[in-house]
Input
Amino acid sequence: MDVSMGLPTTVPGVSGAALLEFARRADRAGFTGLCAVDRLVHEGYEPLASLAAAAAVTTRIRLASTVLLGAYRGSGAVLAKQLATVDRLSDGRLVVGLAVGDREDDFLAAGVPFRERGRRMDSLVRELRAVWAGEGPAAAVGPRPVRPGGPPLLFGGHSPAAMRRAARYGSGWISGGSSGSAYRELVGRAREAWARAGRTDPPRVVSLCYVSLGPDGRRHAEEYLHSYYAYIRAKARQAASRAVTDEGRLREVLAEYADAGCDEVVLFPCSADPAQVDLVAGAVR
Output
């Protein structure tokens, strides 16, 4: 199972210098990927700009949006150009994770109807692929991605519609943070959607997990996740309680995910200190 690191783009107070140092250390430490999340109504950094910056200071590590809320981003041609640019800057290291999102305020701020996000996502994916293939009314939009057909697409979400979308358009499915035992059931549902769509290739299944190691790990997890998930009220406490704050527990959680059939776990930090990369790397080696 691959292990990737998240960039702390949504951790309050993170500096540009800290983000770049995070990227450098994750690249040197041997993690599979370096990932960024997407929120509009938040103080966090824009994920594609962050991944472009990370591309400039890394040479090996995969770069991924986990996940990009594509439905509020307007023109598919513009997004196709942005994604292809990051892909070219990183020499083909980009993976695009997409989801419809569940926060209405993000869509209100972008001037996009929240109830149309599923339909908009399906249309967006078709437009991305057409642009990258040099087809349709935006055929002249460049640059072309490094790989023919564009970067791999993963789709997030636990709903039946999200899993059908992954099976229809994607190379895999990605889950938000959840326990290893719950994840096993979700993987089964994703694979069932894959089979119903007539897919014979196996889906790449990925999950996110929050981690916060070191002497103040639990405090950082509580402060960050209570704030970040305040919109789901009481469930914010559940999200914080699932954060891994102990090295031994981290190894157990990774083993649980591997046993549940996970192909890749993305460990998202709750602190902006680049030392988190070293602590996590030391725990998982």
User: Anything to note?
Assistant: The first strand starts at residue 2 and ends at 6.
